[in-house]
Amino acid sequence: MGRALGSVRARAAAGATVVVALALIAAGTAVLLVLRSTLQDQAGLQAEVAAREVASQIATGTAYGNLDLPDGDEHPVVVADDDGRVLAVGEDVRAVDGKPVGRAQQGAGSAGPGRSGDDEGGDDDDDDVGGLRPGEVDEDVRYRDVTADVDGTVADYRFAVVEAKDTRGEKATVRAGSALAPERNAVGSVRTAMLIGLPLLLVVVAGVTWLVTRRALRPVEGIRGEMAAITASTDLSRRVPVPSSRDEIGRLARTTNETLAALESSVERQRRFVADASHELRSPIASLRTQLEVGVAHPELLDVPGAVEDTVRLQRLAADLLLLARLDAGERPAQARVDLAAMVREESSQRVGDRVPVRVGELAGVEVAGARGQLARVLGNLLDNAQRHAASSVRVAVVRQGEWAVLRVDDDGPGVPTGERERIFERFVRLDDARARDDGGAGLGLAIARDVAVRHGGSLAVREGSVFELRLPVAG
Fold first, then answer.
1. What angle do CA 349, 351, 355 make, to 5 degrees?
2. For the ranges 15-24, 166-175, 247-256, which has the lowest average pLDDT?
3. Residues 215, 7, 220, CA angle at the centre, nearest 5°?
4. Are both 146 and 3 inside the same structural domain?
5. d(C-alpha 324, C-alpha 444), whole Å
6. Closest to 86 in 3D by CA, of 100, 72, 105, 62
7. CB distance 43 to 156 below 8 Å
8. pLDDT of res. 108
């Protein structure tokens, strides 16, 4: 059991660790992706601001040679025309995307936005090229992640590409970049922190889960130990310890104690049953043996009727004990349809030797499901009990009450005292006025009757002193 508990703790710790690990990996991946996207967007925004600032200068007519370009280390800038000629380039910018960039061509940077009056005629044709007019900056921006060589250092940048037209209608493309190194450094730092912190956190989770599970399962070990001791000692009066917590383990302990109490009661009933059965069997067996021994020595003194009576009594007692054993074993009754009215008429007609005649009252036509032999046994036991106590009248009737069939047997005897109305259904119980074995039975008739009623889904109880009421569900 210790190994089993250890296995439970190990599985709980491993399961919690795996779940937390998966959750942290998923959350960490999401954080890294969001952080990377945010920082890249921030770099793109910085590049766009730098590109639009240069494009605004071009749109306002600033000569390319006089453009105020950002420092190349922070934001490398390249300005080119439609033909790809470089008009302006940031300081120390040597190459972009593997392509060398030189200073603006002689005259292009000094001529300014308007090169000559001869070009004005062509400007009108290009006024609407790309949807831009002279002096305007395109609202659209494009982004590209490329490498740039700034002062001999090659690094990754996010470039923003913005188009603008100068006051003469010449279109220029401004490319401004923002370094991605800070973004990658930040993402790398966070990733490194996660890789270091994740194992430590998992170790903490596993340890805490192990300790919590161990503490939670400690009462279970106490329950197991006590159950083992009860099994070894066969002392069913002992009980397992109940923890103070009102959780599943507490309910398990209480249920275990309830089971032990029921088992103790069952074993006690079984012991009492065996003792009572032995006591009941001893008297007729001793009487029969005595008569047979006397008959062997003195045949003329043999009481044959008495021996037959003792034999019949033994036979009945053995049949009752056998039926009780079958009922205790959980034998399910047959599910045949039994007409209670017909059964009452048939059983009553056969009782011609009774001390008090049996009167049949109302017999409602109602059927129940069960074993006819067992139900007839119940009726016979109730009639026998009524015969022993009746003064001059025994009556039986069958009525229907909703979904229940009710069989009543009553007599005009003194009735059952209120305090004894449940005890008389216990096995081997006889009231004081029925203790004589010559007049009373072994005290099993009513116990058998109630057990059979319960097995058939019904009940048997005493009503109004001397009325025994058997209730059974109507068939179908």
1. 135
2. 247-256
3. 40
4. yes
5. 9
6. 105
7. no
8. 41
Which of 310, 328, 346 is a domain's end point? 328
Q: Are residues 356 and 297 in the same domain?
A: no
Answer whether residue 239 is part of any domain: no
Residue 6 has pLDDT above 70, yes or no: no
Banded pLDDT at 45 (limits 50, 70, 90): very high
Strand partners, 363: 398
The rounded distance, in Å, linking the Cα atoms of 217 and 249 is 8
CA 117 to chain CA centroid, Å, is: 87
- Helix, strand, coil shares, percent, the chain, to 5: 55, 20, 25
CA-nearest of 229, 101, 281 to 177 is: 101
Whole-number Å distance between alpha carbons of 119 and 19: 71
Is the domain of 29 the same as that of 50?
A: yes
CB under 8 Å to 469, separation ≥6 — which residues? 406, 407, 408, 460, 461, 462, 463
> Which of 328, 357, 386 is at the close of a domain?
328
pLDDT digits (tens, 9 = 90+) for 250-293: 888 888 888 888 888 878 877 777 777 777 777 778 888 888 88
Which residues are 165's β-sheet partners? Answer: 171
Residue 391, SS3?
A: coil
Range of the domain at 448: 336-473
Report how far residue 374's alpha carbon sits from residue 452's, in angstroms, rounded to the nearest whole number: 7
Where are the alpha helices (H) located in 234-350, listed in sequence order? 248-297, 304-328, 340-349
What pLDDT does residue 296 have?
Answer: 82
> Which position has the token pair 């009623």?
453
Q: How many domains does the chain have?
A: 3
Tokens encoding 196: 């270091």
Both 164 and 259 in one domain: the answer is no
Q: What is the DSSP letter of 355?
A: S
Radius of gyration of the chain (CA): 52
Instruction: Please tell me which residue, 321 or 347, carries the higher pLDDT value.
Output: 347
Amino acid (1-letter code) at residue 160: A
CATH of the domain at 255: 1.10.287.130
Task: Give the three-class secondary structure for 243.
Answer: coil
pLDDT at 121 over 70: no
DSSP 97-133: TTEE--PPPTTHHHH-S---GGGHHHHHHTTTGGG--
CA angle 140, 142, 147 (to 5 degrees): 155
Q: Are strands 93-96 and 99-100 parallel, antiparallel or unpaired?
A: antiparallel
